[in-house]
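How it folds:
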Amino acid sequence: MTRRNKNITGKEDTMKKKICSLLLALLMLVTMLPVTTMATASNDYTQWRQSDSEWNQEEAWPASQYPNASMRWMRQAGCLVTSVAMLLRHYNVVVTSDVNAFNPWICNNALKAAGAFTSGADMYWDGVRKAYPGFVYKGSATYSKATLASLYSQGYACIVGVNGNGHYVAVKYADSSGATIMDPGWGYTSLSSFSSVNTIYYYSATPTAHTCDKGSYVYYWDAHPHYKCYQCSICGKIWADKTETTLLSSCDECRPGKPALLNMQSTYEAGTPVTFAWNSTANTTHYNFWLYRLNSDSEWSLVDRIDRAQSGLSKTLEEGNYKAQLLSYNSALWESDNSDWVHTYGDDCFFTVIKSEIASGTCGENLTWAFENGVLTIDGEGSMMDYDADDAPWKDYRGDITSVVIKSGATTIGNSAFKGCNNIINVTVPETVTSIGTNAFTNCTSLTDVYYGGTEAQWGSVDIGSSGNDPLRSATIHFTEPEPQPPVESSGTIAIQSVRVQPGKAVTVRLDLSANKGISNMRLQLSYPDGFTLENIQKGDALSTLFFTPPGKLTANPVNFVWDGTDADTSEGCILELTFRVADTVSPGDYKIHMSYQKGDVLDNDLEDIDLTLQDGAVTVAQFTYGDVNDDGVINMKDLGALRKYFAGGYDADKFVMEAADVNGDGVVNMKDLGILRRYLAGGYDINLGK
């Protein structure tokens, strides 16, 4: 990761051997200066050049400080830092139009002060965030038009290495047809101007927050082009509004009645509570709080909804892009047809939740490592370095590593690589690994499972160091591609029921057996997601002639269930009912309940292996409100009418939430729910929905 390409330096060294020092000096003067004229800095950051007269002769790194730097002037090697400065302005991480307040030279000094450069004056790609926390390095990729367009469309700020990564340019815009660039060298606007286009380095850029309405209401419109600042026609203050809707000419302060979130930040760190507070407005009785998260399809998905919420509520959120909104319902005002409440929406407020700092580095000529949230990931191709007992690059995290994932392409695991990592539980090893070094897993006392990407025969050919790898040898090896087995007789299907539940609630999941041709002995293993607690196990009616042994501890995950007998049982139906408690911290989404069994665990009356088809189920964790049958955010007569039509057989059940129709929360939708909802709407009854 360099501020200038190391290959250029290598070439210079070669030339030094072939030509005289005078010719070398002349060559550097001609070839290393991107622009031969000394331009003057512009307030337009897109026109910045490393050769601008304000800084072109500045020592980016003095010889006393960086003795190994061969080229120390901004005009010689300032292309990368100039590209970084351009993007900091382009993405509003730094907000100013004053060239004296921020420019490439000021940026360079800030990076030096933050320790973003090596002793050889190379720049750490991830070093920028040390000086500018809103600009975080995410990775690199081999250049192609499609790759660059994809990264740009995802909102990443991109720097492209050209001419063999000997020069760097900033991307202004990119799509499938090409890119518009900001070139700190020659001022080119297209990548086609260069002899080669090599590598994309991309960053997440969080814009600096701007405030409107005298600093009371905060909107982050620079990150979201559908928002724009306007001047209030009444008070003259600057405020923000949506560009795609009818423009209102006055700000919130001069247009009372519109709720707004107050004092929000642009970014929060994962695990840190986010507080939502709002202003008081006229003619309203309560607010509903809506929180959305941008999903993988670039669509906003509702992740939380709180009716009649109070200002100051706090939530801890996982990484992602979010928007929050307030919705006010006014019970005193009605629409002309008296069909629904008059509702007023507050402006969307956008923010981002980011992960904590990720530790990373290299562990081979073409291998990299990254540690985050207990997982150590090895990526790349080729051999891993060999280490002594205490010099592995992740040594500072040995006690925190619980899982190691080595991706396909790595060919060796080095000596003493994971020695002393006594909390590693599982390791993923690809089929490309051919040898594992001596003492690689010494003292990995918690290791229980190895997930291997090849067959059992391939694993047998891996050269495992003779000493220090006992934990590896005693672990259970799971083969992604098992050896082919002779077919066995199919003997039915076990399917896990898919259900829905609210966070913080309990839910019962059925396991049903069908097409059973006769089972005499069976052991099933079942695993479930984090945040789920197994509270109860109830044996079903099927397989009743077999002796059932439940797990010794409900806290185990995975858990084992055993049936055995002297005669085969051919019954069908429910074999188990499992009750899970879902923690209130579990985010909305689908969570897999998984079943498995090993060879020799399902037998017929002759103790021969038989085959079962296993169908996993899912628990959908979703927010809903008991009684809000049509899921429109309010409980009213529409919900009562929908429930009545459902019982009469004249209503499409797909149009409302069945869980919400279970008004008393007893797990069944029946006439009790209709009666309870009627009393709730009438008032005067002691009714608690969901109980």
